Amino acid sequence: MCRFRIVPILAVLAVVTLLACRGDSPVAPAASSPEVAASAPGTARIDAARERLAAQFARALSRPEVRAAVHAAVRTSRFPEGKVALDQFLAADRGRLRGLVWAASGTLPDLATAGRLELYFPVPEHQAAWDGSRRILVGTIGNDREMPVAFDTDGRRRHLDPREPPATPVLAVVPRETDFAAGPAFAVAGPSDDDEPGETPGLYLTRTHFNDDFESWMKGSPEFEILALGQKGSSDSLATYQCTNERAPGPYYYNQDQKDWSGSVLVLSQAQLDNYRAVHPGQAMRLFFVEDDDTRCVIKSDPADLRSLIAAVDSLVDGLAGGTDVWSVAGRTWRSFPIAQKVFSVAASLIKSNDDLVGNAVEDVTTAERYAGHNWIVKGKNGQTNGYVKLEVR
Q: Which residues of 276-294 are buried (b: 16+ CB within 10 A; e: fewer)?
């Protein structure tokens, strides 16, 4: 007969003794397991819950009915890249799929801790190739700079190459970047066939090149945005006056999925420029490029990182990090101009999906760099060149 007493100092030893009495051997879980990481505070706990949910979902895909439901959902999705809101998917058919995930893993999906997630194939070839079989992985990642992890339908965990996707199709369970409540992006996408390009006078972006797409392959296509930042009231802070991106209406629609892009997108109308000048005489505007992760037209970043970037760029170009429209012999152009405002309020990210700060555009004449067909250079952290663009006033 095995006997033991539990006293406060020997509580841990008592657990070991109890296991010994049962004939079991205590085994320490691996440090990298989601269950261990789940006890960590803040974003580590959210990451662990998301990874645990991905493992549950992978095991659920061992069931033909779950695979059939996923196959149908991503192929009939009205959202870009076939994205599906995970919570809505699990709630469908009065929660039947949530019940199947529970049955396969023995635990209810912890959506509350894991955060708002979406489900899709980030590699188009993977979606095209997957026929609903068990040859599939469920992958997840929080921050673009993290190592992606994935699970097969038996629940086995593996690391994926952060640079290249595997040959096996990967279904991603990742922090949500899509506004499912607003409807599909193409519902408000760019100009119609009846619109005439350039019919609205103002500042236009016509060509870009970025040195990186600033997006892990696990997160799918990049979501580049241009924020026109100007003086906030009479303060030394910045406010957003216009956001140009893939969900913006009409001439402000801008969708760049590769490192190079050409087209015609309105950044600021002449009316906006005139109104800004009337309210803020003598003040310029910063054109700031970001790769947005999950909230349109809102910069999510460490405030110190943003302030450091702005300070580095301002120092590099002697304060000429802004721009304004001026008359020249060639007509109206967008030229560099001093800008005093250096403070911008950023939104905190609760799911480690901070935006990538691509950089502040500066006119090429303020640097020694020149790139054919482009006239403004996008400067990022420590003043490094992250790309270059062409801006023109029409």
A: bbeebeebbbbbbbbbbbb
Mean pLDDT across 44-54: 90
- Separation of alpha carbons 84 and 75, rounded Å: 10
Do 322 and 203 form a contact (C-beta atoms < 8 A)?
no
Token pair for residue 136?
């599939």
121-169 pLDDT, tens digit each? 999 999 999 999 999 999 998 776 678 999 999 999 999 998 889 999 9
- Cα four-point dihedral sign 230, 277, 190, 321: negative
- pTM to 2 decimals? 0.63
Dihedral class, residue 96 (left if φ above 0, else alpha if ψ from -120 to 50, else beta): alpha
Cβ atoms of 389 and 196 within 8 Å: the answer is no
> Is the Cα dihedral 298, 299, 302, 304 positive or negative?
negative
Burial tier of 390 (Cβ tally within 10 Å: 0-12, 13-18, 19+)? middle
Looking at the DSSP bridge assignments, the partners of residue 238 are 231, 344
**E strands within the chain?**
84-85, 117-120, 137-140, 149-151, 157-159, 170-175, 202-210, 224-231, 237-244, 260-269, 286-291, 322-328, 331-337, 343-344, 356-363, 376-379, 385-393
Q: How confident is the model at residue 190 (pLDDT cuts 50, 70, 90)?
A: very low
Between CA 73 and CA 70 the distance in angstroms is 5
